[in-house]
């Protein structure tokens, strides 16, 4: 007769017997040649350490519930039933990590085998197992059941018959994985009917996982962190139930996924892009966390790494030369410097690509005029201030200080600096009473000032020989005489000796100049207005000619 599958049993048999007699009959069928084992070679379920209960499933597998909540499922070839006792083969014990040991008496769960033929030949008996949850003893010992007519077949009131067998899950119930990875567990199951299986998960921590319903591959939704477990009791052991479904029957298994510690690579917490102003060398500060607290060593690579240095211990990154926004040196020429920073904890490494963006800063104009210069006396022009602005801004000029500021003027647009009055070397007007004049010039680009502290040195110049300032003709000079070839009134403001060279001979009726001095004609009784053309020569200096009227 075809077995009937059910979740609980009600036993009706032609032989009225005790439960132990029933198990003995069942053992006649289960302990066949394929399953027969010597009791001395196997371990009774009662004697497995940590076993709390067991069930024989509809597919003939043995399900053992352990005290730690795990479930062990053994296929039919790994256990057998003999004389009312269930035994696990030594191979199954080793394969599933089961250990012999004293255990409390176990409860036999539901034997969901349906209608089973046990024994053989003349000793054969038919036992009907149906879905009736009643376990009333009258049903087992009374004579009002359908088998009372002595027929060896069940009346069929146990439900429809089925030959489908449930899937068998063979993957381990405890699985360990390292932190920081997504792969968690692979469900392995088979179906004796070769049905297509689909997989699902449930249980305490199932929300933290995804499962491929076709392959049974289970992955973490977020890679687990040993230092920060997310399972329900935060002990790093994630409990789920995996279920295999063949379309008719399902089988489930509780699985514990244990997350193990692994050396964590350094974790970057500093920004991947930073902006800095031009004209400074400090570029970037690397910041990392290492869960194990290992010492970190830093290094550089990347397109623009040659323009930088890094402190291998602190992670401080600097330009080898301060960057100039107006003259970028990065590989792209766009003021975006790209480097890769690597952190090594001695076991693991991690890297971060970093972009350092150099921004423009308004720079003051650069003044190239010297801070000290010489100018000759007797002129107002001094210098035109020379300045350049990196941004090309329009410049303005002003006088903002200096002891002699009041003696100067400057063109605000061109920067031309002048004396208000031409300086006289012989009569210096500086605040210090010397021929060095102090003035401060400020150049402004609209935002920033540049300052030049300037010293103007007035130099002496040779001046031309001429009439005294108080006379423009000889007639206005009283008692003008020549003594020893020198005028009594020195016409040279430098007080240098003057030679008088005769240019005109003595006329018969007039006056002239010769080597001895002024000569008069013998016939001249008096001198009237006359013109003498003299050359007055300054000693060791250039010649100057003047007309003297007398």
TrEMBL record:
Residues 169-268, 289-378, 367-471 form the Cadherin domain. InterPro entries: Cadg, Cadherin-like_dom, Cadherin-like_sf. The keyword Transmembrane applies. It comes from the Bacteria. GO terms for cellular component: plasma membrane. The keyword Zinc-finger does not apply. Residues 131-169 are annotated as: Disordered. Residues 1-36 form the signal peptide. GO terms for biological process: homophilic cell adhesion via plasma membrane adhesion molecules. It holds the Pfam family Cadherin. PANTHER family: FAT ATYPICAL CADHERIN-RELATED, PROTOCADHERIN FAT 4. This is Cadherin repeat domain-containing protein. It comes from Altericroceibacterium spongiae.
């Amino acid at each position: 007769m075809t077995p009937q599958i059910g979740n609980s049993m009600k036993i009706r048999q032609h032989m009225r017997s005790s439960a132990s007699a029933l198990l003995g009959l069942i053992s006649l069928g289960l302990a066949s040649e394929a399953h027969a084992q010597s009791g001395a070679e196997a371990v009774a379920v009662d004697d497995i350490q940590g076993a709390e209960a067991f069930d024989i499933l509809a597919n003939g597998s043995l399900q053992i519930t352990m005290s730690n909540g795990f479930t062990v499922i053994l296929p039919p070839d790994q256990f057998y039933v003999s004389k009312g006792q269930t035994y696990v083969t030594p191979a199954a014990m080793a394969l599933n990590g089961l250990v012999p040991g004293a255990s409390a008496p176990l409860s036999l769960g539901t034997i969901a085998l349906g209608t089973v033929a046990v024994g053989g030949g003349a000793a054969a008996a038919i036992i009907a197992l149906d879905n009736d949850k009643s376990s009333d003893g009258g049903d087992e010992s009374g004579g009002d059941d359908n088998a009372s007519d002595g027929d060896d077949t069940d009346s069929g009131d146990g439900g429809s018959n089925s030959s489908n067998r449930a899937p068998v899950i063979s993957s381990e119930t405890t699985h360990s994985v390292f932190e920081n990875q997504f792969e968690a567990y692979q469900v392995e199951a088979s179906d004796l009917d070769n049905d297509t299986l689909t997989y699902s998960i449930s249980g305490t921590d199932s929300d933290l996982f995804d499962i491929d319903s076709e392959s049974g591959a289970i992955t973490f939704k977020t890679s687990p962190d040993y230092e920060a477990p997310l399972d329900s009791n935060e002990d790093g052991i994630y409990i789920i139930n995996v279920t295999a479904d063949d379309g008719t029957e399902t089988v489930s298994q509780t699985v514990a996924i244990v997350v193990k510690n692994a050396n964590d690579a350094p974790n970057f917490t500093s920004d991947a892009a930073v902006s800095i102003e031009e004209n400074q060398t400090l570029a970037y500060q690397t910041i990392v966390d290492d869960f194990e607290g290992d010492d970190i060593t830093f290094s550089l690579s990347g397109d623009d790494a040659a323009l930088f240095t890094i402190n291998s211990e602190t992670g401080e990154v600097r330009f080898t030369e301060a960057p100039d926004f107006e003259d970028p040196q990065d590989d792209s020429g766009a003021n975006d410097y790209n480097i890769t920073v690597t952190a090594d904890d001695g076991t693991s490494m991690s890297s971060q690509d970093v972009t350092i963006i150099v921004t423009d800063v308004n720079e003051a104009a650069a003044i190239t005029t010297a801070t000290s210069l010489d100018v000759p006396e007797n002129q107002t022009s001094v210098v035109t201030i020379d300045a350049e602005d990196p941004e090309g801004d329009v410049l303005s000029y002003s006088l903002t200080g200096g002891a002699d500021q009041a003696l100067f003027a400057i063109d605000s647009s061109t920067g031309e600096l002048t004396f208000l009055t031409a300086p006289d070397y012989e009569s210096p007007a500086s605040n210090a009473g010397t021929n060095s004049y102090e003035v401060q010039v400020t150049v402004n680009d609209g935002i920033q000032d540049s300052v030049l502290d300037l010293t103007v040195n007035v130099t002496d110049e040779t001046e031309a020989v001429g009439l005294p300032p108080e006379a423009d003709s000889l007639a206005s000079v009283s008692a003008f005489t020549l003594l020893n070839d020198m005028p009594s009134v020195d016409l040279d403001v430098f007080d240098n000796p003057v030679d008088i060279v005769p240019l005109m001979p003595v006329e018969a009726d007039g006056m002239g100049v010769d080597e001895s001095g002024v000569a008069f004609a013998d016939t001249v009784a008096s001198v009237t207005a006359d013109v003498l053309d003299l050359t007055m020569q300054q000693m060791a200096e250039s010649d100057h000619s003047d007309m003297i009227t007398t």
